[in-house]
């Protein structure tokens, strides 16, 4: 155990054991950080849709959970100890972290496409996540958060990087007309990207009025409350109404719902770009001919690369309203209840407070 952890401290973690079987359990304190590692005391952790998938299915797409793991990867914390070779951090620094740790040697890493690293290890799964009091992480994937960014906002930097990377993948730029399918946290973050990148029209869909109301507050120009009884053609007709009879030149699928993957192909303007952000079923029947005949450009998003510094700057400059996403707050002792709330689909982002932020008073709880 690291000497930076109070003597006799009994660590706990929210551990996934099997489908729908997760609980707060005793967990070993981490060892002294390795030469290039920092020991982090956990502050805030957001529940991601992937956490819910892992708990429900012990899988997400082709990623399988094969042994018990500590959940959580959207996290902020405070450095309490550093390894012998660490020079960028010191105890007391408030940080967030990038879940993947890559090899830095494969062809993708050497091309700065490290999100595609073929030997990357990722927290949760197969390695433990951050719903615990203390954990170690490699310094290359840890980032300082400024004083005016709260621990909650720090935990939301990781999902913000997904939206920033999605914007870059889609070449989002001034004058674009953007459709977002799904107003979960990532969809709402894409609304903010529409403002940051200068879209002239941003339209978002969902089946829930409460999330669409948040989208409006965050700057969406139009919202579409989808009726489950609508056919695909009827939904596209509703979309056209919001784009003056046309279709958007940028369409972001952010729901992970099968019908929305199909819809995204058809709802993108000819020669426009369809960006697949949500993680859906492993196989889907898609209207390929329709998209191909209209030369729709189809791109996908896998995590992010190089987006943490920009995302932290956007949060620090208040260009994005991250706290608006948080609708439910729990403590680590209440983690099971927090996940129940997530499964019920209540609110938007569920946040778990693990530790006290003793260095900052920006939190809004």
Architecture overview:
The protein is of the alpha/beta class. The chain folds into 2 domains: 12-144 and 321-353, Alpha-Beta Complex (Quinone Oxidoreductase, Chain A, domain 1); 168-300, Rossmann fold, CATH 3.40.50. Helix content is 27%, strand content 25%. It is built from 11 helices and 20 strands. The chain has helices spanning 49-57, 107-110, 151-155, 157-169, 185-197, 209-218, 232-242, 258-266, 288-293, 308-316, 335-344; strands at 12-18, 21-26, 37-46, 59-60, 63-64, 69-70, 74-82, 94-97, 100-101, 121-122, 134-138, 142-144, 177-181, 201-206, 222-225, 250-253, 273-276, 297-300, 326-331, 349-353. The strands form 5 sheets. Strands 3, 7, 8, 11, 12, 19 and 20 form a 7-stranded mixed beta sheet that branches. It has a 6-stranded parallel beta sheet with strand order 15-14-13-16-17-18, with helices on both faces. The radius of gyration is 21 Å and the shape is globular. The mean pLDDT is 94. Its cofactor is Zn(2+). Keywords: Metal-binding, NAD, Oxidoreductase, Zinc. Residues 15-352 form the Enoyl reductase (ER) domain. One of its GO terms (molecular function) is L-iditol 2-dehydrogenase (NAD+) activity.
């Amino acid at each position: 155990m690291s000497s930076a952890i109070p003597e006799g401290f009994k660590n706990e973690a929210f551990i996934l054991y099997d489908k729908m079987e997760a609980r707060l359990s005793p967990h070993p304190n981490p060892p002294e950080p390795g030469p290039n590692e920092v020991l982090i005391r956990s502050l805030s952790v957001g529940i991601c849709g992937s956490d819910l998938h892992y708990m429900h299915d012990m899988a997400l797409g082709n990623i399988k959970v094969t042994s018990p793991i500590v959940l959580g990867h959207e996290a902020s914390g405070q450095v309490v100890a550093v390894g012998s070779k660490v020079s960028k951090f010191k105890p007391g620094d408030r940080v967030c972290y990038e879940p993947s740790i890559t090899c830095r040697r494969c062809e993708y890493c050497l091309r700065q496409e490290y999100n595609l690293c073929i030997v990357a290890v990722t927290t949760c799964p197969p390695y433990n996540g951050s719903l615990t009091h203390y954990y170690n992480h490699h310094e290359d994937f840890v980032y300082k958060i400024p004083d005016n960014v709260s621990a909650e906002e720090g935990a939301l930097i990781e999902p913000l990087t997904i939206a920033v990377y999605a914007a870059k993948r889609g070449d989002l730029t001034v004058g674009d007309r953007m459709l977002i399918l799904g107003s979960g946290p990532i969809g709402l973050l894409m609304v903010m990207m529409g403002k940051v990148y200068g879209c002239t029209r941003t339209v978002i869909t969902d089946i829930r009025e409460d999330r669409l109301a948040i989208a409006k507050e965050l700057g969406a120009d139009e919202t579409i409350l989808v009726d489950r009884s609508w056919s695909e053609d009827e939904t596209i007709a509703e979309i056209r109404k919001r784009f003056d009879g046309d279709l958007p030149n940028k369409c972001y699928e952010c729901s992970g719902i099968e019908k929305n993957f199909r819809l995204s192909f058809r709802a993108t303007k000819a020669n426009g770009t369809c960006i697949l952000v949500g993680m859906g079923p492993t196989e889907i029947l898609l209207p390929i001919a329709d998209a191909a005949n209209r030369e729709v450009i189809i791109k996908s998003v896998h995590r992010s690369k190089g987006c943490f510094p920009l995302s932290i700057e956007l949060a620090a400059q208040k260009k994005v309203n991250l706290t608006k996403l948080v609708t439910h707050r729990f403590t680590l002792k209440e983690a099971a209840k927090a996940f129940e709330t997530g499964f019920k689909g209540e609110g938007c982002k569920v946040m778990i407070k693990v530790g006290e932020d003793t260095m900052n008073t920006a939190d809004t709880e």
